[in-house]
């Protein structure tokens, strides 16, 4: 955590804020709320970590659609997996640790807005669409498992600070048009008066049809802040509301992607997010050496999902020709046109009649219906408060900056899910039938089919923390800190209450003290070095505790099953590096890091694509080298970041790998396991990340910029042992995504002092690429027709055709806009 270095000769009358606002260009962190709140300045050379920052002006100049897009384009060691293929639903990863909106993704980054934790109680997910880009005044990305940032800070913490009327006065309106029927309008207004009041408000509306088939998005956000301050006190209340509808149709199978780059596997995949938050922050300078701060917050999130999926249980069934009893049931119900005989995969590419007939007979729709509609509804409330103090003191000639505080957070979440059978249509949509997976259906091995979930969870966490930054000299600073967290999770199952087999009931407790120590040393002007060690932890969430039984895998976010207990994740991180400047023209840095996760919580794929369970994995490791150079020479602004990342498993584990050619299946395409060995690379983590940009400012009227992001290949999910090879009819595709490089061009022209126009071209050279991959059984043949029992039986079992599915990158797009400032 970044804490300030005290100056050796501070005037006695100087305030603490003035002291903390020492020279430098990096926001320090006052740990108010559940996280450190950036409020003041601190010299960069006193930090024992390679912190990255950005201002509102840099975010606006980048042309990024939202905060996640800015992180991907501009910050080192950050990359994005677009698993949902919606611009507002990316998996944002830093050093291989992820903040994702998708349940089931291992979460390892903490995200905060004005001191309020944005990781949601149910799954620790982060919904990027709920963060208003225009309201962000600055951001700080802190690396490592720093304990002062609270739970879930395994790989880093992202602190977002919003604008206020003093820093962002005036009024502006901005409109955009772009490819794929993209249109948006944003407005902001800020101001202050002599009585100390300040205010800021912004709102936006965004709509697009999306570059893929049937993938529209509709985003509505509004944000407001009202505050009052004087020389000693500052209080502000923030209100934010979002109401969004996002369609992200997910991964596409490789052959279908080659046939039509814009195609979808099945549809729809709709997420409706509604969120309201209230956050009140305050600080008061009690004396020249004592600063008090705190916050209180409330947040409510309501999420609906509606997903049209393949029913994987139908892939090894006879789904084409209705039998005599089925034909009789269809005729009695008034249906006509069903085949009397001879229906098969070659002449019936999209079967439906056996599905409908089995619903009428109340027989086997779970095997004969090849489609399924999955619906979920998640309601979350979380609230909490915290307080802290920061004090200066001289002890035995050493200047101490001491920060200490406590926080309390409470969350309530309910999750309800239903699954309705249906059949697949040629346009990849699902037509539902009047039959639900609610326990009334028995599958072919006599097991009830019940995908319903009605789970409520209550989570409470209280914590205390402290830090002491000791400036022995102006060149040497030592920071020691720690945080103690105690969490309880109480799950209650409304369908199978009381505990025991099949019940999600459970009471879980987790506690841990996490320490940190960091040393910063500046041996010469323009050069400094740092060394740090820190520990962080993450407690299992309600959904992970409700989906941890390998005998009862879940379809996320749709179903959960009774669970063995999970342990909390503990991450231990080392950091070391040097940094400096070249004649005030450029800044450079070089660093190394190693982070080891103990009892990491991973989502393990089960025998069908989409099913799986959470489990503790012995140990994983993230280590690497980071190099950076940025500067400004005349009208030219430039920068380059390179990361070598090695994210590996460090324990031996056996997991299901039925889609992997190296599994121990009795025959190709049948169910089997794979063995993960120490040293195997973790899927979706590239080894190399390179970013470079150059911007030219042509006087006061125009600017133009060029940026490149290059990412190396990464293994697919399902290829955790790195052993998959394409071959034979059962295994299609390489089991990895190829490396890629995309270039973006942007420019701005100032027509008048108030009116400006801007343009951006994404993926300038229209490259086709993929940001993620996954192995899984496919339900289609090479012509795009549904295919059950695609291969001959082996000892009565039907092998699957398994393929590599890709998260395709967006093609070239052009966006233009106009901004008018009042």
UniProtKB/TrEMBL annotation:
Gene Ontology, cellular component aspect: cell outer membrane
Occurrences of domain TonB-dependent receptor-like beta-barrel (ranges): 265-764
InterPro entries in the cross-refs: Beta-barrel_TonB (IPR000531), Beta-barrel_TonB_sf (IPR036942), Plug_dom (IPR012910), Plug_dom_sf (IPR037066), TonB-dep_rcpt-like (IPR039426)
Origin superkingdom: Bacteria
Keywords linked to the UniProt accession: Cell outer membrane, Membrane, Receptor, TonB box, Transmembrane, Transmembrane beta strand, Transport
Protein location: Cell outer membrane
GO MF assignments: siderophore uptake transmembrane transporter activity
Record-level GO BP terms: siderophore transmembrane transport
Membrane topology type: Multi-pass membrane protein
Chief location category: membrane
Domain TonB-dependent receptor plug: 46-157
Family: Belongs to the TonB-dependent receptor family.
The protein's name in its UniProt record: TonB-dependent receptor plug domain-containing protein
Organism: Janthinobacterium violaceinigrum
Lineage, top ranks: Bacteria, Pseudomonadati, Pseudomonadota, Betaproteobacteria, Burkholderiales
């Amino acid at each position: 955590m970044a804490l300030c270095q005290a100056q050796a000769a501070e005037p006695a009358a100087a305030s603490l804020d003035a002291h903390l606002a020492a020279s430098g260009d990096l926001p320090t962190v006052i740990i108010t709320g559940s996280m450190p709140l950036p409020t003041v300045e601190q010299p960069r050379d006193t930090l024992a970590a390679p912190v990255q920052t950005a201002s509102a002006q840099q975010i606006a100049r980048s042309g990024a659609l939202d905060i996640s897009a800015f992180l991907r384009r501009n910050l080192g060691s950050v990359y994005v997996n677009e698993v949902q293929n919606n611009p507002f639903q990316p998996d944002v990863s830093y050093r291989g640790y992820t903040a994702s909106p998708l349940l089931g993704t291992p979460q390892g980054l903490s995200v905060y807005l004005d001191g309020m934790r944005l990781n949601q109680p149910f799954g620790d997910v982060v919904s990027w669409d709920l963060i208003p880009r225009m309201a962000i005044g600055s951001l700080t990305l802190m690396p490592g498992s720093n304990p002062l940032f609270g739970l879930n800070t395994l790989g880093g913490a992202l602190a977002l600070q919003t604008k206020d009327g003093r820093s962002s006065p005036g009024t502006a309106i901005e409109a955009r048009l772009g490819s794929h029927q993209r249109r948006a309008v944003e407005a902001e207004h800020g101001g202050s008066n002599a009585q100390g009041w300040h205010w800021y408000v912004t709102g936006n509306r965004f709509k697009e049809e999306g570059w893929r088939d049937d993938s529209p998005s509709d985003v509505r956000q509004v944000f407001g802040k009202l505050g009052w301050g004087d020389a000693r006190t500052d209080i502000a209340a923030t209100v934010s509301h979002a109401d969004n509808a996002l369609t992200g149709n997910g991964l596409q199978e490789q052959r279908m992607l080659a046939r039509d780059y814009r195609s979808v596997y099945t549809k729809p995949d709709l997420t409706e997010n509604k969120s309201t938050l209230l956050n009140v922050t305050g600080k008061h300078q009690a004396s020249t050496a004592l600063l008090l701060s705190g916050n209180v917050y409330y947040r409510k999130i309501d999420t609906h999902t509606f997903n049209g999926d393949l029913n994987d249980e139908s892939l090894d069934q006879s789904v084409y020709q209705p039998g005599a009893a089925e034909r009789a049931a269809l005729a009695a119900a008034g249906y006509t046109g069903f085949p009397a005989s001879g229906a098969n995969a070659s002449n019936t590419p999209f079967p439906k009649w056996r599905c409908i007939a089995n619903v009428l007979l109340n027989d086997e729709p779970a095997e004969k219906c090849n489609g399924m509609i999955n619906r979920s509804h998640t309601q979350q409330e979380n609230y909490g408060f915290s307080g802290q103090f920061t004090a200066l003191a001289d002890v035995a000639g050493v200047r101490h900056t001491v920060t200490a505080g406590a926080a309390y957070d409470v969350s309530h979440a309910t999750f309800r899910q239903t699954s309705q059978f249906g059949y697949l249509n040629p346009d990849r949509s699902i037509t539902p039938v009047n039959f639900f997976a609610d326990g009334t259906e028995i599958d072919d091995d006599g097991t009830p089919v019940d995908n319903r979930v009605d789970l409520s969870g209550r989570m409470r966490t209280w914590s205390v923390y402290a830090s002491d930054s000791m400036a022995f000299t102006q060149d040497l600073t030592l920071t020691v800190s720690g945080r103690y967290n105690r969490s309880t999770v109480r799950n209650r199952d409304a369908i199978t209450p009381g505990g025991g087999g099949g019940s999600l009931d459970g009471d879980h407790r987790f506690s841990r003290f996490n320490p940190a120590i960091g040393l910063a040393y500046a041996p010469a002007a323009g050069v400094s070095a740092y060394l740090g060690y820190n520990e962080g932890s993450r407690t299992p969430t309600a959904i992970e505790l409700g989906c941890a039984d390998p005998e009862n895998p879940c379809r996320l976010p749709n179903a959960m099953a009774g669970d063995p207990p999970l342990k909390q994740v503990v991450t231990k991180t080392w950091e070391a590096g040097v940094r400096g400047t070249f004649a005030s023209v450029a800044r450079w840095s070089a660093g190394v890091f190693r982070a080891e996760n103990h009892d990491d919580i991973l989502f393990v794929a089960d025998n069908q694509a989409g099913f799986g369970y959470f489990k503790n994995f012995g140990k994983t490791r993230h280590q690497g080298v980071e190099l950076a150079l940025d500067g400004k020479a005349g009208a030219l602004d430039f920068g380059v970041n390179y990361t070598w990342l090695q994210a590996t498993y460090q324990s031996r584990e056996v997991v299901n790998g039925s889609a992997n050619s190296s599994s121990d299946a009795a025959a190709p395409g049948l169910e089997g396991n794979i063995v993960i060995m120490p040293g195997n690379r973790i899927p979706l983590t590239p080894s190399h990340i390179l970013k470079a940009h150059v911007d030219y400012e042509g006087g006061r009227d125009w600017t133009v910029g060029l940026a490149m992001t290059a990412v190396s290949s990464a293994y697919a999910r399902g290829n955790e042992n790195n052993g998959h090879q394409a071959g034979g009819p059962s295994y299609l595709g390489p089991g990895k995504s190829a490396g890629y490089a995309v270039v973006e061009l942007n420019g701005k022209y100032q027509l008048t002092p108030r009116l400006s126009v801007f343009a951006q071209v994404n993926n300038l050279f229209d490259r086709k690429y993929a940001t993620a991959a996954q192995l899984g059984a496919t339900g289609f043949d090479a012509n795009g027709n549904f295919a059950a029992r695609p291969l001959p039986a082996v000892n009565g079992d039907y092998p699957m055709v398994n393929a590599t599915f890709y998260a395709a990158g967006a093609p070239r797009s052009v966006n233009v806009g106009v901004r008018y400032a009042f």
